[in-house]
Every structure is written in structure tokens, then in C-alpha cells.
Amino acid sequence: MDTLRALIADDEEHLRDYLEGQLKTAWPELKVVAKAANGLEALRLIDEEAPDVVFLDIRMPGMTGLDVAARLVAGAKPPHIVFVTAFDQYAVDAFEHSAVDYLLKPASLERLEKTVGKLKAALRASEPAAAAGITAATLQALLQQLGGAVPAVAAPAPSLQWIRASQGEQTRLIAIDEVIYFQSNDKYTSVFLADGESLIRTPISKLREQLDEQQFWQIHRSVIVAARHVAGTRHDFRGRLMVQLKGRDEQLVVSRNYVDLFRQM
């Protein structure tokens, strides 16, 4: 079996380091590949590192651990999720009666070993996180038990058809069918077309929400490619999976979290 990978998300650095140290004792084969200080950073690092197990603090600034988990379980291949909480025992009862595993801060070695045992059993069974009980319905019920508000799910917006982009000193109206791929930069998103490159201010995360996922594939946190322009894939000398485009020289890196898109190619 390949080395198992983990991510720890907690807004307190000393607690991140403490949990990492406890894991080295309870599960020495597990490699902590990243640590995040908030929910947004956790999502970015999960995208980049594709960990097998994620330890999520419940209360983080901006995006909570429950918010992050809800985003993860909506994906095609969610990691195994363990919540880390400082809630009192009354609130912890909500976790006890759900299928979600949790650790009470600071996690004792004895309690952590029980969690490790559950995770190892699920991993041996190749059981996806959703099948282990980490589902959208579970999270909603958990929020209700903890007294949190559960926001309504908005209806999906229609797919994007046109883009208004800058090209030099001109503004250009681009039909979505003209796009070969999008690539985000520091302040802009580049739109690559057959006849050149244009710039838009829309973040790639917002574009993803507006694009038809059957027609546009996200292959990296900073790249979305039009499926009809994909010629194939290859591995480079570093072992990274690369997307080859029809009629173009550049090749695009596929991050770990999106490799499964190309398993059948």
C-alpha cells in the first residue's frame, strides 16, 4: 500500500503541532503532508495534496470545519474525515450518536488510537468517506443538534455562455465555445483561445460554479480545460500527469486530486 497521507486543519498552531506529534506515536505510518490554519487554506491544500485522511477543527475563522467537510463530501472522492472539537460534553453527544468520528481537544493518545483503528478498518475496506457516514445529511443533522443554522441550497445557475475579457486595450466578448482553457494568476484569470490570450478578473473558483462540468474539467486548483480540446495525457520525467492539447504545444499539469478524471484514458 502507498504511504497514507493526512492533513490537519486548526487555527491554533500549537494544537496543529500537538496533534501531529500524537499521530506520529499512534500511527507512525501516516504522513502529515500539510497543515492549515483556516478552512479556505484547508480546501486549497486538500486540492494540492489529495490526503487520505483530514482532521478538521470545528471552529475556524471564516469557513468552519463543518463547511469544509460539506464541500469535500460533495466531491467525487472525499477523504476520510475526523472532526476535532473543543465543545463541552453535552455538545459532544451529538457526535457520539452520529456516524462521524471526532476528537476532543487536546486529543489524548488513548482516544486517538481508537480513531486510528476506525480509520485503518475503513481504509482496508476501501470504504469511501461518504459510505462511512460522512454525508451531507449527516452533517446537516449534526448542525441541527449543535444548534447551528442550516442554509438552504440554492438552485444551480445556468451555465456560462459568454465572457467579457480584456485583450490589450480592447474589451472582447468571447463565446464560451471558443475557450481552450482557463488559468488563474495572481490577480487575473487568463482565457486561452486559438488566436491568443485574454484576461478576466473572475476568480477560477467562481468560473467553476458557472461552467458546465461535462464540458469543462478542473484539472488543478488553477486550471480548467475544455474537454473537447484534450488530446490525451502523458507522464513527465517527474511522474506528474500532463494533459496534452489538440494542436497546441503547451501541456497542463494535473494535480493529485484530479488524476481520477483520466483513469480511463
**What distance separates the N and C termini?**
24 Å
What is the number of helical segments per DSSP (H or I, 4+ residues)? 7
* Physical arrangement of strands within the biggest beta sheet: 2-1-3-4-5
Structure class: alpha/beta
Keywords: DNA-binding, Phosphoprotein
GO biological process, one term: regulation of DNA-templated transcription
Domain HTH LytTR-type: 163-265
Domain Response regulatory: 5-120
Q: What is the element layout, followed by pairings?
A:
Blueprint: E1 5-9, H1 13-26, E2 31-36, H2 39-49, E3 53-57, H3 65-73, E4 80-85, H4 89-96, E5 101-104, H5 109-124, H6 136-145, E6 162-167, E7 170-175, E8 181-184, E9 189-193, E10 196-200, H7 204-210, E11 216-220, E12 223-226, E13 230-235, E14 241-245, E15 251-254
Parallel strand pairs: 1-2, 1-3, 3-4, 4-5
Antiparallel strand pairs: 6-7, 8-9, 8-12, 9-10, 11-12, 13-14, 14-15
Helix pairs in contact: 1-5, 2-3
Protein name: Response regulator
Keywords: DNA-binding, Phosphoprotein
Modified residues (4-aspartylphosphate): 57
What this model shows, in words?
One of its GO terms (biological process) is regulation of DNA-templated transcription. Keywords: DNA-binding, Phosphoprotein. This is Response regulator. One of its GO terms (molecular function) is phosphorelay response regulator activity. With 265 residues, this protein is an alpha/beta fold. Helix content is 28%, strand content 29%. It is built from seven helices and 15 strands. It has a five-stranded parallel sheet, with helices on both faces. About 3% of the residues have low confidence.
